Amino acid sequence: MENKKKYIIISTMLFQTLLIIIYNISILGSSTLVNLKKSIPFFNIFIGVTTILILISFKEINDYEKKEAELRLMKSNMKNVEELITLLRTQRHEYLSHIQAIGAMLYLEEYKELNKYLRGISTEYRFTNEIVRLGHPALTALINTKRELAKEQGIAFYIKCKHKINLENINSWDLCSLFSNLIENAIEAALASEGKKWIKIMIDKKYDKYIFKIENTGKIKDEIKDKIFEAGFTTQTSVGRGYGLYIVKKIVSKYEGTINFKNTDKGTVVFTISLPSEVNKYDKKVS
């Protein structure tokens, strides 16, 4: 649908250009300008109307691309929650299986086999007590799932929550979208960095504000520092990229918060987000 709109816009612009050329040729080749002068108002109206339609179409396409980016993020967040639920269910099933096996070996007094079995599951099994609980169910699911994804890519992931999150007046979708974008951005930057790759998330509360810090290996080049929050700006070649940090900035502004970043002397970049613990309830969409 959007590709058709783009073709229509291009065709309209070409038609405008062709019409202007024909009109100019008519003026140059005409012996009298009386008839041409009469058609000038209609010509100007036509050009004006088509130009307005083109501008409206450009805006609609831009809005569509933003909504597509938000939809992809929503699907990604839903997938993260599903993966965490699956992980918890799988571990629950494995817990029961391990308990039954351990009970059987104890009953049969197979202590050597039991010792070997316990050593095996202690090194290979991921326990659910590794899950860091943040006080916000949706954000807990998101960040813990992102941590597992980062670990699978060889990135160490640390979470330090000094204060449980209680942001009832901020939509869960907005909060998850904010962190999903920041963490995905951090993962990309960490993968591109040299040496040990890691990400650290710190959550704290000072007075009436929650402070979130996301630090990762890598840095932001000086020449793009002023552009990273612009819609459509990206250093990647993939189509549809460049809206992550733009959406982050919009969400932070929507809830009257602040966001800033800086490169550190140890070869990392830190994003710091401040959100008020009590804000007005906003129903408007991030755009």
TrEMBL record:
Span of domain Histidine kinase: 175-279
Keyword Coiled coil: yes
Sections of the chain in a coiled coil: 64-91
UniProt signal peptide: none
SMART domains: HATPase_c
Its EC number(s): 2.7.13.3
Membrane-spanning segments: 7-28, 40-58
GO biological process: phosphorelay signal transduction system
A GO molecular function held by the record: identical protein binding
Superkingdom: Bacteria
PANTHER family, sorted: TWO-COMPONENT SENSOR HISTIDINE KINASE
This protein's name: histidine kinase
Species in which this protein is naturally found: Caminicella sporogenes DSM 14501
